[in-house]
Amino acid sequence: MAFFLSTFTNKVDKKGRVSVPASFRTAVSSSHFPGIVVYRPFNLPCIEGADITFLEQLSDRLYGDFGPFNPDQMSVATAILAGASQLGFDPEGRVMLPGELREFAAIDSHATFVGLGRKFQIWGADAYAAHREDQLAHAAEAAPKLPPFGGGGAT
Predict the structure, then answer these.
(1) CA 42, CA 142: separation in Å to the nearest integer?
(2) How confident is the model at residue 154 (pLDDT cuts 50, 70, 90)?
(3) All residues at 6 or more sequence positions from 109 whose CB lies less than 8 Å from its CB, including other chains
(4) DSSP state of 69
(5) What is residue 152's predicted lDDT score, i.e. its pLDDT?
(6) Model pTM?
(7) What is the pLDDT of residues 51-78, one digit of tens each?
(8) Tens digits of per-residue pLDDT, 31-41?
């Protein structure tokens, strides 16, 4: 499965095309789909994305945890999987961000790609600056409460 790190801000052209960071393209290069998959998250004004494997595993998990006819499974599958877009790379490593997602995330002339490990987010540049400050403040409070790496025992 792909792994995404760092933050990059790239220009969005008038057609809605944006260059996916080279390290993100490399991360998905071993996938059987040559591109990224993007979708609207539940609680943030951005676009979330991943490689196809992440969405396949999410789908497997939804069916395994809830069962195929469970209303909760159907709601989450409809919200994420039905609204997802598979975006293939053009020869320059760009994708065409769907207009409805660009509008939702207030992405106009620049898009900020934010690596979050197994998935990433795409933000409007100004909105991400404010979100990052909020996240840093929250992390300062939450990090000390996390269990230590390696299960907690000192050796």
Answers:
(1) 21
(2) low
(3) 11, 12
(4) T
(5) 56
(6) 0.90
(7) 999 999 999 998 888 877 888 888 989 9
(8) 999 999 999 99
Q: CB of 80 within 8 A of CB of 38? A: no
d(CA 39, CA 86): 9
Q: Where are the beta strands (DSSP E) in the chain?
A: 7-11, 17-19, 35-39, 47-50, 85-88, 94-96, 110-115, 120-124
Residue count of the chain, please give it: 155
Sheet of 85-88: strand order equals 7-11, 110-115, 120-124, 47-50, 35-39, 85-88
Digit-coded pLDDT (tens) for 90-141: 999 999 999 999 999 999 999 999 999 999 999 999 999 999 999 999 999 9
CB 113 within 8 A of CB 24: yes
Burial of 145 from C-beta contacts in 10 A (0-12 / 13-18 / 19+): exposed
Largest CA distance in the chain: 57
* Distance from C-alpha of 51 to C-alpha of 33, rounded to nearest angstrom: 8
Identify whether the C-beta of residue 37 lies closer than 8 Å to the C-beta of residue 86. yes
| Secondary structure (H, E, C), 96-132 | ECCHHHHHHCCCCCEEEEEECECCEEEEEHHHHHHHH
Contact 119, 2 (CB under 8 A): no
